[in-house]
Amino acid sequence: MSLQIFPVTGIGEVTPGADLAELIVTAAPWLADGDVLVVTSKIISKAEGRLVPLPAPGPARETARIDVIAGETARTVAARGSTRIVATHHGFVMASAGVDASNVDSDHVVLLPKDPDGAARMLRATLAARHHRRVAVVVSDTMGRPWRNGLTDVALGAAGIPPLRDHRGETDRYGNPLTLTQQAQVDQLAAAADLVKGKIDGVPVAVVRGLPLAPPDGPARDGVTLTADPPGVVETLVRNPADDLFSLGTAEARAAGLRAAATLPDTPPLALHALPAAALAEVRRAVALVTGSAAASADWVVTDGPPCVVRGTSAGAPLRLGSDVHRLRAALAAAGLATAVEYHEPATALVTVGADE
Amino acid sequence: MSLQIFPVTGIGEVTPGADLAELIVTAAPWLADGDVLVVTSKIISKAEGRLVPLPAPGPARETARIDVIAGETARTVAARGSTRIVATHHGFVMASAGVDASNVDSDHVVLLPKDPDGAARMLRATLAARHHRRVAVVVSDTMGRPWRNGLTDVALGAAGIPPLRDHRGETDRYGNPLTLTQQAQVDQLAAAADLVKGKIDGVPVAVVRGLPLAPPDGPARDGVTLTADPPGVVETLVRNPADDLFSLGTAEARAAGLRAAATLPDTPPLALHALPAAALAEVRRAVALVTGSAAASADWVVTDGPPCVVRGTSAGAPLRLGSDVHRLRAALAAAGLATAVEYHEPATALVTVGADE
């Protein structure tokens, strides 16, 4: 199997209400069954009228831009300076919610398409029904990523092609099971297409030819048979934040840890469970961390239990003991251990340590 | 410009000491000047002998695998269960330091190439000098990424092609400057090549034809002229962790925040600077957060200053006041504000708040 990637030139300016299928087939009359059409999200947004006018240059323009981004933001993931990495309402994590001022006149910004998978399906269906081309469609956009400089194009939407190429259940030629191998093929198609699209050449569409697509076994529409659409990009490629090891920026997560320390409840919301043996070593480490960093203000006694209890006693420095008790609780929370505290004013505090389920 | 992507089949098993240039040219005698050769890192590792034998299946094998990963790890970025996302000694952030058990017999694991850019340069130079092919070389590997399911291939090394295609300084056709647009073209080439390589077909090499490479203006080697090698992938694509908003996993950064709360020094290491007006609102918010979450144990008075000072006084509950003072300091640290604390035992604590440079 070899692939060819063709730029589609001559599409020209796309305006709200434009008929993209017509524009594409006119520019690429050679479009053929089995091709994958990779379409820059920007021309879909423009055709959908997802343009927002900006005030004249100046502070009002910057404020308006920030408001537009806020409207497209479901959750801020990380911020530094004027950079905002956010999750959009679709779930994509990207800078400025994908709101973009390039390749549009300077008095507008362009929003992402409302439903990129839906737009891909509609374009695919129209190309089949009206132009008798059975193609797959990938809607692409440009994104940065953690850890690596430079941008790459990835998919925002897809139709007629499964976003993941699933190798799970297969074995390599040594017989090793490929347990983790799901390639995000639509992202790779978007990246491949960008190699011929460029950013300034006015080439918003490319065609990838030669990829084996699923057989055309779907219902006929106007005489053209289409496969049923597999689940889209949003459904398959957007990871649930709860499953993500990087759901928040480092500075934001660190601040969340500091806020958690500020608001540790005296009694944890869940019952404390008996500590595994390894955790008793963590308790001793936490006590050493706190007593090592503070002036000696108290005597500390650890009872292994269960329950494991740390007792702090101070004759003359109750404020410092109270502070150190809270330091200890924060250190234990950092190690994943939950605590309950009792203050026996003015000289003794008891910290009960448990495994938080 | 259109591209073609060809798989290189028939390379067969690669063993330590193998002559990759010879294997590739034999399998792809059609390799031509200007082609980009995308080579899976695994066959480079195998040719370099970067294979580590494992003990017989069982707990010892798992321990050995963990030790091998630790040896390839410069820094652990995130961990959950048995998953380890680490920075390798090259600086790549990836699962298990790229140590892989697929496409190798089950008694070995494969390490990443020691110097993927160097390996790319050597392969390129050998292909030029001995086989008279002037090509670019990209060394690829498969990685996961935050926020999106599925894996994509990216570049670990490159020669004869700049890793970034730089659009900065150009303008789009509306005259907007493209200030941020640096496409990681070698990553996109790796992704494109994977579309024809697959994971189980024994196709470790692909050729991308049609990309305009730099003119061959470098020094002649054995009669073949090569361009000087631009900086490699490690130098250009690996982001400095200090510049990265996601240098640590969310759980790890949150734990670091809790640990920071446990170890706040009584006096910050840097001089406190006068608070900007906006920060005074943060101070009031932090006081409200702490006094709202704790039982009323003290009177709190905020003096705007400079310096801004929060005074807590308690007649009968000094332990709780000490604890609440530390909660307050953690809340202020979460807002980016540094504090110094003085305990006037047993009833009064003074927290001085400053902007930390």
Which percent band covers the strand fraction of chain A?
A: 25-35%
> Looking at the chains present, what oligomeric state does this protein adopt?
homodimer
Biggest chain pair contact, residues each? A-B, 117 and 118 residues
Question: Rg of chain A from C-alpha positions?
Answer: 29 Å
Mean pLDDT of chain A: 90
Number of alpha- plus pi-helical segments of chain A: 9
Helix residue percentage of chain A: 25-40%
Q: Give the strand order, joined by hyphens, for the main sheet of chain A.
A: 1-12-2-8-9
Class from helix and strand fractions of chain A: alpha+beta
Distance between the termini of chain A: 51 Å
Instruction: Using the alpha-carbon principal axes, give the shape of chain A.
Output: elongated
Biggest sheet of chain A: strands, sense, closure? 5 strands, mixed
Pfam family, one (chains A, B): F420_ligase
Domain Coenzyme F420:L-glutamate ligase-like (chains A, B): 12-210
Enzyme class (chains A, B): ligase
GO molecular function, one term (chains A, B): GTP binding
Put the structure in a nutshell.
Chain A has 9 helices and 18 strands. By secondary structure, chain A is an alpha+beta fold. In chain A, helix 1 packs across helix 4 and helix 8 crosses helix 9.
Give a description of the structure.
Chains A, B: Its EC number is 6.3.2.31. Two copies of one chain form a homodimer. Chain A has 357 residues and is of the alpha+beta class. In chain A, 31% of the residues lie in helices and 27% in strands. Chain A has nine helices and 18 strands. In chain A, the strands form six sheets. In chain A, strands 1-12-2-8-9 form a five-stranded mixed sheet. In chain A, strands 15-16-18-17 form a four-stranded antiparallel sheet, covered by helices on one side. In chain A, a hairpin with a 4-residue loop joins β5 (83-88) and β6 (93-95). In chain A, α1 (20-27) packs across α4 and α8 packs across α9. Chain A is elongated and about 90 Å long.
